[in-house]
Design brief:
Largest sheet: 6 strands, antiparallel
Oligomer: single chain
Strand order of the largest sheet: 3-4-6-7-8-5
Structural class: alpha+beta
Shape: globular
Strand content: 35-45%
CATH superfamily: Hotdog Thioesterase
Radius of gyration: 15 Å
Number of domains: 1
């Protein structure tokens, strides 16, 4: 395992080995099969073993009373980006369910988009641990607005 941190990305990536050649197709299929994700308009940006980036446009119907991205949207991005990141390390026929998650809302999510960067911190046979970094994007500037800490049950 190699721990890589990129200043441009602002979220660490721990390099894990590829489980098998089919993980990319399975991950994209899983992401695109979630009705709630489709309803919110969350889009897959990129992923690899142990990590996943996704984003959503902050539309008026996804905001709270002050016009900021709703905390429920931020929590959803944190949870699902971490959960699917964990799935990238699992063999065919396995997936995850969230056991517990904590969200730290650091500042309002202001801007045009939210970007979630899910990262597996410790994969396991029964439970995996992951974190998410949620950024609000305004123009070319990304601002960290939340962090998520997620425990995931492995379903085989």
């Amino acid at each position: 395992m190699l721990y890589v941190h990129s200043r441009a990305m602002k979220a660490p990536i721990i390099e894990y080995p590829v489980v098998d050649d089919g993980y990319r197709k399975r991950t994209a299929t899983l992401f695109n099969s979630m009705p709630f994700v489709k309803f919110l308009g969350i889009e897959l940006i990129d992923f690899g073993p142990g990590w996943l980036d996704c984003g959503v446009e902050i539309r008026p119907e996804l905001t709270q009373q002050h016009g900021y991205g709703h905390a429920g949207l931020v929590a959803t991005l944190a949870d699902m980006s971490a959960g699917i990141a964990a799935c990238t390390l699992l063999p065919d026929g396995s997936d995850t369910l969230s056991l517990e998650f904590k969200i730290s809302l650091m500042r309002p999510s202001v801007g045009e988009r939210l970007i979630a960067k899910g990262r597996v911190i410790k994969p396991g046979q029964r439970i995996s641990f992951a974190e998410s970094w949620i950024y609000s994007v305004k123009g070319a500037k990304e601002t960290l607005c939340a962090r998520g800490y997620i425990s995931l049950a492995i379903r085989r």
